[in-house]
Design a protein that fits this description.
The chain is of the alpha+beta class. About 65% of the residues lie in helices and about 10% in strands. The chain is globular, with a radius of gyration of 31 Å.
């Protein structure tokens, strides 16, 4: 074999090797760029979701008319509890849990326990007893309640203000989140009704755009 042919063969092999190396490098660079772009996209989406401005329009109207400093201080304590609930649900959501899947059951247990304690305190499981032990005059001021009907078997109350909803509004929750948090919180009231041997219907809800929360306990 002549030296020229050997040289051409070597040159061809060098070109092929170079092409293969170029293809491999290009493929690796493409994969790396794709990974980087994916990482950047995911990061940007996360940042956009985090920084996305919430809708300015809200159907929730929730302003107090009673502004006594002592009443406001009590409301502040209730707002703190509501903030705990929101933050617990928010962190649970980040870990893949549905808010209502765990929150509702926990709050229901709290309501059942509270209801049993109220029955012991009042010495009766009548709904008149529930009104006297839970929906006292100070509580009526805090939530700006109106007792619509009160018998041993029926208790109907309108709440014209809710400090829990106010806490969720302050936290920047969306209307949908406020409605979900209200559903979870109301599980406590359902638990109380169950402890008294009755049931509760929530006929209206401030958290869902109504002018009042209308609770209807019945046996």
């Amino acid at each position: 074999m002549k030296s020229e042919e050997v040289f051409r063969m070597a040159e061809d092999m060098t070109d092929k090797i170079a092409e293969q190396m170029t293809d491999q490098m290009a493929e690796q660079m493409t994969d790396q760029m794709a990974e980087q772009m994916t990482d950047q996209t995911v990061k940007q989406m996360a940042e956009q979701k985090e920084n996305k401005p919430r809708s300015r329009h809200s159907i929730v109207t929730n302003e107090p008319s009673i502004k006594n400093p002592i009443i406001q201080a009590v409301r502040g304590q209730l707002e703190q509890r509501a903030a705990w609930l929101y933050l617990l649900c928010d962190e649970a959501g980040k870990r893949g849990l549905e808010w209502k899947d765990f929150g509702s059951a926990a709050i229901k247990r709290c309501g059942l326990s509270q209801g049993n304690d109220l029955i012991k305190t009042g010495g009766t499981n009548s709904l008149t007893g529930l009104r006297k032990t839970l929906f006292t005059k100070p509580a009526q001021w805090v939530f700006e309640m109106k007792i619509r009907k009160s018998t041993d078997k029926v208790l109907a109350i309108d709440f014209h203000y809710c400090p829990l909803v106010k806490a969720w509004q302050k936290a920047g929750c969306t209307d949908e989140e406020i409605a979900d948090l209200c559903d979870i919180a109301m599980c406590g009231d359902h638990g109380i009704g169950e402890a008294y041997g009755g049931k509760l219907k929530l006929l209206k809800s401030i958290a869902k755009g109504d002018e009042v929360c209308r609770l209807y306990y019945y046996k």
